[in-house]
Write a structure and sequence with these properties.
Radius of gyration: 25 Å
Number of strands: 12
Largest sheet: 5 strands, mixed
CATH class of the largest domain: Alpha Beta
Structural class: alpha/beta
Shape: elongated
CATH superfamily of the largest domain: Periplasmic binding protein-like II
Number of helices: 11
Strand order of the largest sheet: 4-3-5-12-6
Number of domains: 3
């Protein structure tokens, strides 16, 4: 069995078609079919059901696919390890973070890390945590910055910061000058702008309001923090976002709540047992050092 056989097998399995797989691999279909037959012969089991219009994995194929994919990931990680430069004179770092962190973590972390290690190429993606975790598990990113309540068992979380949340409105909102705390009755009627349901923040807020026995009046939702903030600045909506965001925007006002919002905890997410590039190790050390002993970026 050769590495070529594994790559060819995965290509056919993913494409569900020998012709498309051959085109993607830049080999002829007869060559591809021959290589797959060689692999099946070496394993002593058919990997594909070729009886229909589409090629499907057999039971043996499904079982082999999981291990073949993992083996290829490990081999690619090994290739990166060979080219890894311990002095950080070159390298790549693939990061993903949930949107609520971006406004106040990019400056102290990403920009500062890039200044310290200018030869490391940073690839930053912003997405909900439910997308961050599978990408980490599939080795498509190196580090995720998200919440510590991870769901996939092959990931691990290193605590980073405590993130206080705040109930906020724009400077022209009717409640902007209120000094007394808002109780459940007062919160129930306020129009709110929120992130969409795919984001962890939305579920967190739903649980908070549920504990108060009320349903939040959400009249605007968006899939980006900047869009939510624009809606709040209009003076027509309130929202719940990290306290650090409000602290950095003078046109936002934080309101007191009779029942304070409990803080969340941000963490660095990585795949258990995965090879750590020098760039990834340096970033983790840098991030932990940046926020050591600080409750949040806004309070440090």
């Amino acid at each position: 069995m050769l590495l070529r056989h594994v790559r060819y097998f995965l290509a056919v399995a993913d494409a569900g078609n020998f012709t498309r797989a051959a085109e993607a691999l830049h080999v002829s279909q007869p060559t591809l079919s021959q290589q797959i037959r060689q692999l099946e012969a070496s394993l002593g089991a058919p990997l594909f059901d070729r009886s229909g219009r589409t090629v499907r994995l057999t039971d043996a194929g499904h079982a082999y696919y999981v291990h073949a994919r993992r083996a290829l990931q490990d081999l690619e990680a090994g290739q990166r390890a060979i080219h890894d430069v311990g002095e950080l004179t070159r390298g790549n770092l693939r990061l993903a973070m949930t949107p609520t962190f971006t406004p106040y973590l990019v400056a102290p972390l990403i920009v500062a890390f890039n200044e310290k290690h200018p030869n490391i190429t940073l690839s930053l993606r912003e997405m909900p945590q439910e997308r961050v975790e599978p990408l980490l598990a599939d080795d498509e990113i190196d580090i995720g910055i998200a919440f510590d309540d991870i769901h996939l068992p092959d990931l691990e979380a290193t605590p980073l910061i405590e993130e206080p949340l705040a109930y906020m409105v724009g400077a022209t909102h009717a409640l902007a000058r209120r000094r007394t705390a808002l109780d459940a009755a007062a919160l129930a009627g306020v129009s709110m702008a929120m992130l969409t349901r795919e984001f962890a923040t939305r579920g967190y807020i739903a649980r908070y309001f549920g504990a108060l026995g009320i349903e939040p009046r959400i009249t605007f939702e968006a899939n980006s923090v900047s869009a939510v903030l624009d809606a709040v600045r209009s003076g027509r909506h309130a929202t719940v976002l990290p306290e650090a965001i409000a602290a950095s925007h003078p046109d936002l006002r934080i309101l007191k709540l009779a029942r304070p919002l409990p803080p969340r905890h941000a963490a660095l997410l990585q795949r258990k047992g995965a090879y750590r590039t020098a760039a990834a190790r340096a970033f983790v050390e840098f991030a932990l050092g940046t926020f050591k002993g600080r409750e949040s970026p806004a309070r440090g």
